[in-house]
Amino acid sequence: METALRLLTSTGGYRRSLFMLDDSFEHFHFLPSNGQGETLLKLLVKPEMMAALDRLLLSNQENLKGDIPFEHDAVASNETPTLLAYDFDMQRICRFNKGLDVYGMAGNLICFDFQIPVLEKFMNKNVRFSSIDLTKFRKEFLHEP
């Protein structure tokens, strides 16, 4: 996941000839090259499973608020925007982080437990993290041993 941090913070290097996250692609997911990445890939290729997980994770929150003018998936009861980042879509994560900075707001980020150390280094200091236990997820959602 340290590679993800390098990608999130890259400015393109000398003469911008290296990687730079821009809006060339609507989505840009980072999947580590290990079992954790395999789990993410299983989710990304099953939109119905992602939709079920989204409903479960956001079940105690309100729908989007029109007065929050940046990327978010729901709003907590205290009016704090929430982003689902378990799919590690770097575009959405960056837009959410930038929105929090620009508007001086706090936010909630929901991701897998193994993603938190990298996201803590990258995200605004006003972000509260909620984690999905990868082992429990594999057992309960993917029905793996």
Summarize the structure.
Helices cover 39% and strands 12% of the residues. With 145 residues, the protein is of the alpha/beta class.
How would you explain this protein's 3D organization?
This protein is α/β, with parallel strands linked by helices. The chain has one domain (2-140). 39% of the residues lie in helices and 12% in strands. It has helices spanning 2-9, 35-44, 47-57, 90-103, 116-122, 134-140; strands spanning 74-75, 81-84, 107-112, 127-132. Strands 1-2-3-4 form a four-stranded mixed β-sheet. Strand 1 (74-75) and strand 2 (81-84) form a beta hairpin. Helix 1 packs parallel to helix 5 (116-122).
Principal-axis shape: globular
| Terminus-to-terminus distance | 24 Å
Q: Measured on Cα atoms, how large is the radius of gyration?
A: 15 Å
Mean pLDDT: 87
What is the count of helical runs? 6
Q: Helices and strands, in N-to-C order?
A: HHHEEHEHEH
Proportion of residues in β-strands = 5-15%
* Order of neighbouring strands in the sheet with most strands: 1-2-3-4
Uncertain residue ranges: none
Chart the SSEs and their pairings.
Blueprint (H helix, E strand, L loop, with lengths): L1 H8 L25 H10 L2 H11 L16 E2 L5 E4 L5 H14 L3 E6 L3 H7 L4 E6 L1 H7 L5
Parallel strand pairs: 2-3, 3-4
Antiparallel strand pairs: 1-2
Helix pairs in contact: 1-5
